[in-house]
Design goal:
This protein is mainly α. It has helices at about 20-40, 45-55, 55-65, 85-95.
């Protein structure tokens, strides 16, 4: 029997074996519903909240900002060359959209 403070972690699937087609279809379905309701003049706040909290949308966001391309060995502005699949999975799990932005460093250009 598990204690209350013991966490059981789910096994993480391999990043490359995720069915990206199904994930994309699910996110696009909600995006189409949002577009349809906006064009009809209806409220979309509930659907937007669903899309923001949808784990598949977070997976697609992480996939987009950490591309698998030929330039993956070139470091970006943050100095990170590429992320391992396990780090990508962890990034998607820890991604939270709460409406508040982080402070950024501003560089003034004369």
């Amino acid at each position: 029997m598990l204690e209350n403070n013991t966490q059981v972690s789910k096994p993480t699937p391999e990043w490359s074996k995720l069915d990206w087609r199904v994930i994309t279809i699910r996110v696009n379905r909600i995006q189409r519903q949002i577009y349809k309701r906006v064009s009809e003049g209806k409220e979309v706040h509930g659907l937007q909240r669903v899309l923001i909290n949808l784990f598949e949308a977070k997976l697609l966001a992480v996939r987009r900002v950490t591309p698998d391309n030929t330039g993956k060995n070139t470091a970006g502005v943050d100095g990170v060359k590429s992320l391992s699949p396990s780090k990508r999975w962890e990034m998607a799990r820890s991604l939270k959209v709460d409406g508040k932005s982080d402070k950024i460093r501003r560089t003034w250009i004369p």
